[in-house]
């Protein structure tokens, strides 16, 4: 079953928007935040229609502001929601785990976010040497917090330069599942019903999208092109700008959301959302690591921050039934959007508390569309079709484990052995977290899964692009023969 959605519900999530029925208030001050996991989209960038895709000053400001807000909630010494034991002024690297794909926009976003989270420490970072000399760090105590690559073997091609961005594209079965959307009745119906709409806007974008490309097949790239131009170009420089009415812009974004949602998730074919499944296992592993560490262990990991694409948001939203709380979860999330999982307890902690029982711990889900700020703070929503946004730890892990992919074997079973590197006889259910009692995914396993995703991504993504664009591959031997026969090698256009 595919989703046909023409308007962008995410447009409801603007700064100052009214609190919707699905949204719930944030934490009471009495509880203790033990740790958190933040999944964050990059900030503003240039259009994907032209390479290279560049991270903009506006994008830097967006993620810096978001980092500053999360500092005020989890790190600042005077915060009522400060993570228990986390360093406030100078980052303690063992407490942080920050990751991003190797991509100039995502990596840069993560680095700038961290400067909002832990700004230059000034005189606090000064060091007095044995000879009595005081040394001040450069740039007023700029803090060097590493942003680790999601995998060790990543593609050299920037993710943000691809028209279709979905973290599961390295999974052959997920790619095949996404491809199926382009053969569905829903897709062909939408393609036909919107043909006139896209053709009517040709005067706006015909220098980039010729008539045969102005259709629903290219819904996201057309939307992205127009969206970026609306942000950065003076209206007088946009051809036929009068055609881009609020209604038209809303329909462009809504169609793009429909297109991308159906590539990222399908209720009857969960492997399509492999990116969300792997993310779920990573969230479990991170929170379980925090919960398992002694309360008094200052060096324990307390905050995980991962930057990634909008497609992963969509995959996770679908798997976790987020749309049951609000239709706004169907839309493409805005730049600098973030979702957070807070590990909290109402148990009384003291300097003598060594560990805390999982029975005394809960997890709260928060989401904000766009930059987190005082005017647009993350809000709590229920997941998994539940009524409460804060769930007992055991309930949360049980629900996440229904779709988390937490072992290499499970990933291989779900995705198919694309490169011949999977264990023989893989038989783990594709929908089983299988990550042990904690339901988590170990870092070595996460690395192996990530490596498999990365090594397969070129094959998977090229396959999808070839299908969408109507291109063909020519073998080197065949190409040489064609050239020798004075035939021009070419790729057909859709």
From TrEMBL:
<dbReference type="Pfam" id="PF00328">
    <property type="entry name" value="His_Phos_2"/>
</dbReference>
<dbReference type="GO" id="GO:0016791">
    <property type="term" value="F:phosphatase activity"/>
</dbReference>
<dbReference type="InterPro" id="IPR029033">
    <property type="entry name" value="His_PPase_superfam"/>
</dbReference>
<feature type="transmembrane region" description="Helical">
    <location>
        <begin position="445"/>
        <end position="471"/>
    </location>
</feature>
<keyword id="KW-0472">Membrane</keyword>
<keyword id="KW-0732">Signal</keyword>
<comment type="similarity">
    <text>Belongs to the histidine acid phosphatase family.</text>
</comment>
<keyword id="KW-0812">Transmembrane</keyword>
<dbReference type="InterPro" id="IPR050645">
    <property type="entry name" value="Histidine_acid_phosphatase"/>
</dbReference>
<protein>
    <submittedName>
        <fullName>Histidine acid phosphatase</fullName>
    </submittedName>
</protein>
<dbReference type="InterPro" id="IPR000560">
    <property type="entry name" value="His_Pase_clade-2"/>
</dbReference>
<keyword id="KW-1133">Transmembrane helix</keyword>
<feature type="signal peptide">
    <location>
        <begin position="1"/>
        <end position="29"/>
    </location>
</feature>
